[in-house]
Amino acid sequence: MATINTLILVCLGYVIFLFAVAFAADRMAAAGRGKWLRSPLIYTLSLSIYCTAWTFYGAVGNAARSGLEFVTIYLGPTLVMVSWWWGLRKLVRVGRSQRVTSIADLLSSRYGKSNTLAVCVTVLAVLGGTPYIALQLQSITLSFSIFAEADPSGLYREGSSVFWMAAGLAVFAILFGTRNLDVNERHHGVVTAIAVEAVVKLFALIAVGVFVVWGIAGGVGPMMERIDASEIGQWNVDAGRWTTFIFLSAAAFICLPRMFQVMVVENDDESHLRTAAWAFPLYLLLMSLFVVPIAVVGLDLLPEGANPDLFVLTVPLSQGNDWLAMLSFIGGFSSATSMVIVSAMALSTMVSNHVVMPIWLNTHEGTGSVSGDVRSIVLVARRVSIAVIMALGYFYYRLSGGGAALASIGLIAFAGISQILPALVGGLFWRGATRTGALVGLSVGFALWIYTLLLPGMGAPWMPDAVMQNGPFGLAWLRPHALFGIEGIDPMVHTVMWSLSLNTIAFCIASLLSFPSPLERLQGAQFVNVFDHSVSPGGWSGSVAQSEDLMIMTQRILGAAPAQEFFQAEAEKQGGRSHMPEPTPGFLNRLERELSGSVGTATAHAMIAQIVGGSSVSVEDLLAVADESAQLLEYSGKLEEKSSELSRTARQLREANTKLTQISEQKDSFLSQVSHELRTPMTSIRAFSEIMRDTEGLSREEQTRYAAIIHDEALRLTRLLDDLLDLSVLENGQVNLNLSDESLRSVLDRAVSSALAGAERKITVRRTLTAERMSLHTDLDRLGQVFINLISNAQKYCDAEEPVLVISAHDVGGRVIIDFIDNGSGIPPGARSMVFEKFARVGVDKAGGAGLGLAICREIMQRLGGEITYLTGQGGAAFRVSLPLAFQQAAQ
Ligand code: ADP
């Protein structure tokens, strides 16, 4: 007997060989060599992951227990391949044109890119897939244990060996299944390794079969006799179970995530299906050819109670044919590992794309704008998901104790996963199918599957006996194995019948009652009419009508003239029959390149795809588009920043320029005003001094009069120059304030007497002396100057018959307010805002002022931290002076 250690060595060697095959295939594909990697044969062989360890060992066990029923598991896929290959072709076409990554992605894409639906399918797939992975681990353990029993001294330890096996498979799936993200890039390594395993397991089973028929039974004739003599040979067909199982395996063949992975995602060329349509049934036929002989001989040879699930191993062993047993072991090992690897890949894609990534994107909103970043996250998510799924499978195996409970898992998983069928087939062929319909149907089917099959299979406490016997809350019509009171049906048939029919009915009714979103309708049309819409694989194509749309889009991107030029040139290239080129693949590819320069390749591809309807946008496309737009946005953001900075500078320059112009204008008008003001007194001084010089015999009286005029004018000049000087000092801020304390009353007393001194007809000044008691701390001379100006203005300009000036004062919150209101006709409204400007005079100035007084007042008040304003609605001219009681430096 071969030792267990030899077996472990052979196993390790086989795994290393698989790694090498996968590695070499990946290298060849990357280098563009190895056309055979994409041959229909490899595709067909990769489909063989349908035959897991459960079929490799289990078919014989099944035959030993229930006769020919095992055939149903092979008949289902055969029927699909032979009679429904056109449906599969549609599935593959949709998968490629929509660039789907998994069956969850396909459903989500069909039903308006709904992630809820994707999550549902993912949960369903993981729930059904994990025990299935556990089942593979169990089969490997069981087969190991056969050898270990005979050689207990070997290296093999059940617990740790399973763990290392699971870890090794995870590493394989991670290494070869997540090399890159692009779904267009196939996993040639994995697929080739699986094809090799397909050959190995077929060869192993046939070798055992040949040994049994010719080595043990002694040829075909005696074998047939043995079969006829055994119970298996009896044609015992339970029509209900047969139909159900055929249907179930057909449905699972279409819906299983791992089958979808190899059949649709890894498909290189639709035409491969044509070969697979006959070659795969042939493969299944060969796989099932020797099942019955092995079972019959096993039952004959081996003692009662021997596990028929292991006959493939134990029959050669019992005959001392160790090497054949080892080959058979490798066959079973191959079936298990290939299934586990592809399942882990398919499930991890779903988990990472529909569960991990949405959560990650939600929690990291805004930070993942660069897709390079997101891409590496997706890869990490996929790798972690593979590890987690393998870990789940491993723990399920440990927890379930690896016992007989696992044996029925295969069919239970089939029944669970086939709940996807109505939504899938409906989505492919019925435009009216809606997301709500799919969700409702799936939930109904899923719930029934859990209630009638999964939980009862797990027994108490998951499903208490009381519920099984009498139904929940004593409702007999809800008993898990006799829904609606229909009893006596096989549990599996019962579940499949109720769950799938109610699932389909719910799906149809909810679809009819709900209204699809625009995206759903669009996707629905693309799926159902995929053969009208989609492109032939590998390139673009489109109809002439689309050229105009393309033209419009191109104009928007490149600008009108370059776009027209490009289209013109293309049309000429095509023979120039019309001004619009036909959207041939060549043209579309060139257009894509042309547009790529402006908007990036991904965006260009997505935009053209939208118009020619070739393929819709995948997650990867969107990530790439997002990346490009993020860069564009960043770039345009920078440009915007620059341009707003420039416009800010330009505005500042404009403002400075206007200010300078204003200042220059002010200076000009100021100079002309000043020269005008100077010229008037100068002219009279010159005139009268000339008269005095040149006229002889002027009387004394005349001389005195003229000299007085000259004196007055000179005084006026001096005053004007004084004022100008004062104003320029104030305006330049070169004033030194002379702060001191005194009561307002004293300041006003001095101002009144000084303003009225020497006047002929004095204005009456009314004051409320008690109100002027407050003490001021400020530059009192400057404040007095303001008061004098206001009082003398009233004296000069008040035109009332009996001129009166009322000066009233009061203090509010640390400030004092002094109003000067006379009873003259005041200043007309239009001139009020102007009187504080330099040289501003209202009407004909009888008093001969230069119009600088109020301007000086305004400057002084500003220096003192106060202000002077004109008060409206007071009858006569009214000015209000307000200032802080105590001067504060900050107010300056
Ligand atoms: P000026 O130094 O020539 O007196 P102001 O700047 O003090 O000039 O005053 C400007 C103009 O405001 C004066 O020409 C006068 O027409 C008008 N004005 C000032 N105060 C009064 C007033 N109390 N009543 C009527 N008009 C006044």
What does the model show?
The chain is 68% helix and 5% strand. The chain is mostly helical. The termini are far apart. Residues 533-540 have low confidence and may be disordered. The protein binds adenosine-5'-diphosphate. Adenosine-5'-diphosphate binds next to helix 33 and helix 34. Adenosine-5'-diphosphate is lined by residues 789, 793-794, 797-798, 822, 824, 827, 835, 840-842, 845, 849-855, 877.
Helix-strand layout with pairing:
Elements: H1 4-30, H2 40-46, H3 53-56, H4 58-66, H5 71-83, H6 85-97, H7 103-110, H8 115-150, H9 158-177, H10 188-217, H11 220-229, H12 239-255, H13 257-265, H14 272-289, H15 291-301, H16 311-318, H17 322-363, H18 371-400, H19 409-417, H20 421-429, H21 435-458, H22 465-470, E1 478-479, E2 482-483, H23 491-513, H24 518-528, H25 530-533, H26 544-558, H27 560-573, H28 585-599, H29 601-612, H30 619-694, H31 700-731, E3 739-743, H32 744-756, E4 764-767, E5 775-779, H33 780-797, E6 804-812, E7 815-822, H34 853-863, E8 867-870, E9 878-884
Parallel strand pairs: 4-6
Antiparallel strand pairs: 1-2, 3-5, 6-7, 7-9, 8-9
The chain binds adenosine-5'-diphosphate.
In short:
Helix content is 68%, strand content 5%. With 892 residues, it is mainly alpha-helical. The strands form 3 sheets. It has a 5-stranded mixed β-sheet, covered by helices on one side. It has a two-stranded antiparallel ribbon with strand order 1-2. A two-stranded antiparallel sheet has the order 3-5.
Features:
phosphoprotein, kinase, transmembrane, five-stranded mixed beta sheet, 892 residues, binds adenosine-5'-diphosphate, mainly alpha, histidine kinase, coiled coil
